[in-house]
UniProtKB/TrEMBL annotation, chain A:
It is found in: Membrane. This is Phosphatidate cytidylyltransferase. GO terms for molecular function: phosphatidate cytidylyltransferase activity. The lineage of its organism: Eukaryota, Metazoa, Chordata, Craniata, Vertebrata. Its main location: membrane. The gene is CDS2. GO terms for cellular component: endoplasmic reticulum membrane. PANTHER family: PHOSPHATIDATE CYTIDYLYLTRANSFERASE (PTHR13773), PHOSPHATIDATE CYTIDYLYLTRANSFERASE 2 (PTHR13773:SF4). Catalyzes the conversion of phosphatidic acid (PA) to CDP-diacylglycerol (CDP-DAG), an essential intermediate in the synthesis of phosphatidylglycerol, cardiolipin and phosphatidylinositol. Residues 1-39 have a biased composition (Basic and acidic residues). Pathway: Phospholipid metabolism; CDP-diacylglycerol biosynthesis; CDP-diacylglycerol from sn-glycerol 3-phosphate: step 3/3; Lipid metabolism. GO terms for biological process: CDP-diacylglycerol biosynthetic process.
From TrEMBL, chain B:
Its main location: membrane. This is Phosphatidate cytidylyltransferase. The chain crosses the membrane at residues 142-159, 179-201, 213-233, 239-265, 277-299, 353-375. It comes from Rangifer tarandus platyrhynchus (Svalbard reindeer). Pfam families: CTP_transf_1. Catalyzes the conversion of phosphatidic acid (PA) to CDP-diacylglycerol (CDP-DAG), an essential intermediate in the synthesis of phosphatidylglycerol, cardiolipin and phosphatidylinositol. Its EC number is 2.7.7.41. The keyword Lipid metabolism applies.
Length: 445, 462
């Protein structure tokens, strides 16, 4: 066991920051030989600074505190600009970016697990974690592809077989990983291995399912992807600013820097921002239309007749506001009302995702998830508030915007047995007749 | 901090008491070192969190729980030696469990569903209790409440998704139920979120790591036990035979592998379970395939087992009456040449389902044991002999069901891939939720399709 820890201490790749946390965690119950390596670990210098040389030179004259501010600010603008570029490039690139972010988040969390459990050298474990990631992604992508690319899949014979037995193939792949895990259990490291197994699965549950829900939202229309994410980002920034200028009452013991003033100010600012943003975006077809795969051109198209949600409608203003603004009616998109719900969620519940991540970092004594983005920390640090947002948007769409997908239902119907098809058809017929939608006259058309 | 450990030592679980003295002895040495760290609040997390980085041998054992053998049995067997006494207890309990199983099958699908539900709750309870003992987290604020709350949420979600499909006609009648079904996902998500926010608000300064561990432990347990149990219920609705044959195959494999290992066992199979042998494994495989074959033949005759379970609103109960599908109708198969020579018959009539039962039995014998090895590894990792002491001579409910883990998922995946496509009741339910205009469109599409295929006669009037 000491061997394992010393090997980790000499590991060049592990960031020195984590070594400090390791050494604190190792404090208890250590033997004399261990304390030597601990002393070495504690005296390691702070983590490598990833800030590009360019920035370092440009800001070398400023004091350390302002320099940190400027680095954060520049990186924030860089990330936002990057976000706009990706949106411009289209849904396919967006999907790939979501995929990359997911892999990086998974990598960050798993690396923390390795550092916590000193399990870097456990046999097989790195391979198995990545293998499980691959399996779960294969399963989810297969389900998505089968739904949205139905005609393409039906055309190509190998794809059709893969799609028909998709669940069986995914399950077999997962089983192989499971059996490999059982066979790789080593006598003295059972507990560690089980911990890493559990850690991997919880990470998959959080990271991979969220990212696939994001992609589902994206296919619904890019506006369902952009507005929620921007609301969370806006809430982050606005809460910070309000807290900076007006902050007085602390919000929660977990994050001592958050204040009630920041929270409430951020809430109102985000709702207003959401309203404005959805007003601007609802005008453009490329954001509003569901992403479809066009068989003829073999590419993604976003072209359609905007649905009722994205057509301007007149709303009567309630008496209270009428006296203030002086207008009788206002023209807005129905989607803007939904955006209020989305922004409210982003401001009120989104921060809980942030608190969860803060608690996690305190529990495992790390300052940041990783050091990918200078001044900001790892990718997970930027995306921690988005955890719950993607699930909420997906559930919201499924419950309030549209029901099940009609074309998907037709596809499912076509795969049933004839007697089942007949049974469903007859039930549907009697249901429609009861509702008065179907009469003998329409029947003959 | 000392208080927490003392309270943990005097806690209700009988296993907790003996565990604390060894820990206190070790921790006493560690205490001096913790004084040197500047951050006092890390004390408890470090101490218990340090469990993670030690080797298994450093972790003290949790002592065995009380013996729950009923007094009757003890008196009846008092004359025998200890070894035979253990045998007899195990044997009697095995027979009791099997008879209980038969009784519940006789009582019908609804009782089976309740049985599956109670087993799931008990398994969850057992695994969570182990987590409490490992982390001495019995007294963490809120945690017991939150674990049970999450169990409730996930069960509510799954029952709404699966079982509600089968009650589509019943649900259409009641207004409130329709509301619950339409917004089911949203309601489940809101319930889960409430639990999540309560967890975040309940994080207490010195116990962060413990609380995160218990949170993750709860979620992994839910993933294993609750999803499996719901897949079992879905298999059940497909037809009771899809529930009975897999479960009996696993049980048969357990018993026959043990018997073969007892009489012929020589070569050890895997280091994790030293008692398992290759002879037992292979013997169990062949006997399970034969057993599955015969059980499938016997059960396929009865409509009670073969028909999908339906809820009839007129009689307000579950019925299993139908025209048996092709799988369950005798067909003649021509034997391959080498079998022809052996059996001296040209053809054999059997149910197509029996061929599927070979696949199910093969999985039960080859892959099912991995679930058992997983559970053995888990018990060794956390130094427990049995999951609990519910069943005398056998251990906890989880001990009996560990090999069933993967079986339910396999059967479900098998059914959806090879037997039928998507669940017809679900398709119907989703159809009924659509907007009327969409329904009409779909109706017209379906009608054209059915007429093309000749399933529907074009001249049929309403």
């Amino acid at each position: 066991m000491t061997e394992l820890r010393q090997r980790v201490a000499r590991e060049p790749e592990a960031p020195p920051e984590d070594k400090e946390s390791e050494s604190e965690a190792k404090v208890d119950g250590e033997t004399a030989s261990d304390s030597e390596s601990r002393v070495e670990a504690v005296s390691l210098p702070p983590s490598a600074d990833d800030t590009p040389e360019v920035l370092n030179r440009a800001l070398s004259s400023l004091s350390s505190r302002w320099k940190n501010w400027w680095v954060r600010g520049i990186l924030t603008l860089a990330m936002i600009a990057f976000f706009f570029i990706i949106i411009y490039l289209g849904p396919m690139v967006l999907m790939m970016i979501v995929m990359c972010v997911q892999i990086k988040c998974f990598h960050e969390i798993i690396t923390i697990g390795y550092n916590v459990y000193h399990s870097y050298d456990l046999p097989w474990f790195r391979t198995l974690s990545w293998y499980f990631l691959l399996c779960v992604n294969y399963f989810f992508y297969g389900e998505t592809v089968t739904d949205y690319f139905f005609t393409l899949v039906q055309r190509e014979e190998p794809l059709r077989i893969l799609s028909k037995y998709h669940r069986f193939i995914s399950f077999t792949l997962y089983l192989t990983g499971f059996c490999m895990f059982v066979l790789s259990l080593v006598k003295k490291h059972y507990r560690l291995q089980f911990y890493m197994f559990g850690w991997t699965h919880v990470t998959l549950l959080i990271v991979v399912t969220q990212s696939h829900l994001v992609i589902h939202n994206l296919f619904e229309g890019m506006i369902w992807f952009i507005v929620p994410i921007s609301c969370v980002i806006c809430n982050d920034i606005m809460a910070y600013m309000f807290g900076f200028f007006f902050g007085r009452t602390p919000l929660i013991k977990l994050s001592p820097k958050k204040t009630w003033e920041g929270f409430i100010g951020g809430f109102f600012a985000t709702v207003v921002f959401g309203l404005l943003l959805s007003y601007v975006m609802s005008g453009y077809r490329c954001f509003v239309c569901p992403v479809e795969y066009n068989n003829d051109t073999n590419s993604f198209t976003v072209d359609c007749e905007p649905s009722g949600l994205f057509r301007l409608q007149e709303y009567n203003i309630p008496g209270v506001i009428q006296s203030i603004i002086g207008w009788k009616t206002v023209r807005m998109y129905p989607f803007q009302i939904h955006s209020i719900a989305l922004s409210t969620f982003a401001s009120l519940i989104g921060p809980f995702g942030g608190f969860f991540a803060s608690g996690f970092k305190r529990a495992f004594k790390i300052k940041d998830f990783a050091n990918t983005i200078p001044g900001h920390g790892g990718i997970m640090d930027r995306f921690d508030c988005q955890y719950l947002m993607a699930t909420f948007v997906n559930v919201y769409i499924a419950s309030f915007i549209r029901g099940p997908n009609p074309s998907k239902l037709v596809q499912q119907f076509l795969t049933l047995r004839p007697d089942q098809q007949l049974h469903i058809f007859n039930t549907l017929k009697s249901h429609l007749t009861d509702k008065g939608m179907l009469t003998a006259a329409t029947e003959d058309k | 901090m000392w208080e927490l450990r003392h309270r943990g030592g005097g806690g209700p679980g009988p296993g907790g008491e003996a565990a604390s003295p060894p820990r206190e002895g070790e921790a006493a040495g560690g205490d001096h070192e913790t004084e040197s760290t500047s951050d006092k609040e890390t004390d408890i997390d470090d101490r218990y969190g340090d469990l993670d980085s030690r080797t298994d041998s450093d972790i003290p054992e949790i002592p065995p729980s009380l013996d729950r053998t009923p007094e009757i049995l003890k008196k009846a067997l008092s004359g025998l030696s200890s070894r035979w006494k253990n045998w007899w207890i195990r044997g009697i309990l095995t027979l009791t469990m099997i008879s209980l199983f038969f009784l519940i099958i006789y009582m019908g699908s609804f009782m089976l569903m309740l049985l599956v539900l109670s087993i799931q709750v008990k398994c969850f309870h057992e695994i969570i209790t182990i987590g409490y003992r490992v982390y001495h987290s019995y007294d963490l604020p809120w945690f017991r409440t939150l674990s049970w709350y999450f169990l409730l949420c996930v069960n509510y979600f799954f029952y709404g998704e699966t079982v509600a499909d089968y009650f589509a006609t019943f649900v259409q009648r009641e207004e409130q139920l329709q509301f619950l079904i339409r917004y089911h996902r949203f309601i489940s998500f809101a319930l889960y979120l409430a639990g999540f926010c309560m967890f975040v608000l309940s994080l207490v300064k010195k116990h962060y790591r413990l609380q995160f561990y218990m949170f993750a432990w709860t979620h992994v347990t839910l993933l294993i036990t609750v999803t499996q149990s719901h897949l079992v219920i879905q298999n059940l609705f497909e037809g009771m035979i899809w529930f009975l044959v897999p479960i009996s195959s696993v049980i048969c494999n357990d018993i026959t592998a043990y018997i073969f290992g007892f009489f012929f066992g020589r070569t050890p199979l895997i280091k994790l379970s030293p008692k398992k042998t290759w002879e037992g494994f292979i013997g169990g495989f062949f006997s399970t395939v034969i057993f599955g074959f015969i059980a499938a033949y016997v059960l396929s005759k009865y409509q009670y087992f073969v028909c999908p379970v339906e809820y009839r609103s007129d009689v307000n109960s579950f019925v299993t009456e139908c025209e048996p599908s092709e799988l369950f109708r005798l067909q003649s198969y021509s034997l391959p040449p080498f079998l022809k020579a052996v059996l001296r018959r040209e053809t054999v009539s059997m149910y197509p389902f029996q061929i599927h039962s070979i696949a199910l039995s093969t999985f039960a014998s080859l892959i099912g044991p991995f679930g058992g090895f997983f559970a053995s590894g888990f018990k060794r990792a956390f130094k427990i002999k049995d999951f609990a002491n519910t069943i005398p001579g056998h251990g906890g409910i989880m001990d009996r069901f560990d090999c069933q883990y993967l079986m339910a998922t396999f059967v479900h995946v098998y059914i959806t891939s090879f037997i039928r496509g998507p669940n017809p009741s679900k398709v119907l339910q989703q159809l009924l939720v659509l907007q009327p205009e969409q329904q009409l469109n779909i109706y017209k599409t379906l009608k054209t399709h059915l007429i093309e295929k000749g399933i529907l006669q074009p001249t049929l009037k309403v």
